[in-house]
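Obj.: predict assembly geometry.
Materials: sequence records (below).
Method: joint structure prediction, all chains together.
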Amino acid sequence: MATQVKVSRRLRYPVTVPAINEKVTENVIIHDPSLCTGCMQCMIGCAYSHYKTYDLNYSLLYVNEDPAKLGSWVNANCSHCVSPMCLASCPALAIYKDDLGIVRISALTCIGCGICAQACPIAIPRPDTLKKIYVKCDMCNGEYPNCVKMCSTNALRLMHREEAFKFVNTMRGV
Amino acid sequence: MGETRLTTNSNVTGEKYGYFLGCVMPAKMPWAEKATFLVANKLGLNWDYMKETLCCVRPGVWKTLDPDTWLTMTGQNLALAEKQGVTLVDSCNGCWISHYEALEELKDEPEKMEMVKEHLRKANMDFQGTVKVKHFLQVLYEDVGIEKIKANITNPLTNVRVMRHVGCHGRKLGDDVLPRYFDEILKATGVQLVNTPYDSMCCGLLVYFSDPKIAIYRNVFKKFKFAQDLAVDGIVVICSGCYDQFDRGVKVLQEEGDPTGEITEFDIPVLHFSEILALAMGYKPEDFGMDVFRTVSPTKLISKIKEGK
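Observations (raw structure tokens):
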């Protein structure tokens, strides 16, 4: 995580951000609200695979009812961004991308300040109150994610990044 | 469990169906079990219980805990159906998804198939993976056909207004398969379908073991609030798991009361899809014990049907 890359993708002028590389995961988790029933199986599967509990509070992705539309559900899950805001914001340099492009928080380096959660547009990192650090989705270490496996309606899908980009744009009507 | 409990259609030929009861139906919904058999017999299906079954092995729990145990135990049901020479039929979405997904996974992954075969061999069982798994709705819509169902409707329930609940796993193949079959068959019975924003919301069973409060006060309550406000005659379900959750949720809501204080009584019955079909096919409520052994008795609905208003 030593190299410095100029990030100019969405900015008017290049900004140098430490410890970012262009490595990204091949696939991303995509949520289709039209299929979601709010059953929370994904959260249960996530909590179990990471903490061996069915307690929803331990999940690393979140399902909430859409306040703008009754009976519709939104799912916040990590996209393992090309240029992660969480990574850029971390004062302890505890957030890094691994060889697969998975954005991770180092449990040893994290100081639990929570800046990453504030920087993330959808507040993915959450505090682990026991370890006093922040934790986030690790894509089940590159295996087929348990949340996708557990989804009862196929609302959560694992898609190739480019295909996912097109799919989300279609859903948004862009 | 067995042959003596209900009259089965042994004289007909055609595809042999083995009806997998699951855990909730024999325990909580005897009327639905009877109604299903009445409907199957009326439609001339080669219908019987699937015998010597295990639990479907609830996928929501076992897929997270130990996928190999899930595959092996579900594989045993599949192997039993194969041995009995029947098409395994589930009306509970949970049972169906467990059997369906396990079969798909075993067909796709030869290593898993070998592992399951190895375990089953120890119990002197053989499994080839040739068995078919169908949802009860698939049997009705794809095998029987909507025209034949319509031809058997002798008592259209045009005065009955219902909300319907397909359930999560029922949407696994997309909304054009089971949810559409569900709607079309219900429409064929003449009932009026009342749409609400929460029609596709989960019943809450899947989250019940994690957080009963969310399961009851978010999922069940929201559905029943709409049902009470719209004064429907019932909520129609196909899945025994959903019935189990609604039944338990309503019991809690009746005891604890409405958290918002708006609803004083929860009196909307939860009906099984087969009951509606049986009634529309001319059977009387007492033919399948419709009014017994329920948390909310459908007394109003029964009198409405009898009066024909």
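Conclusions so far: Chain B has a mean pLDDT of 91.
To do: check interface contacts against the pulldown list.
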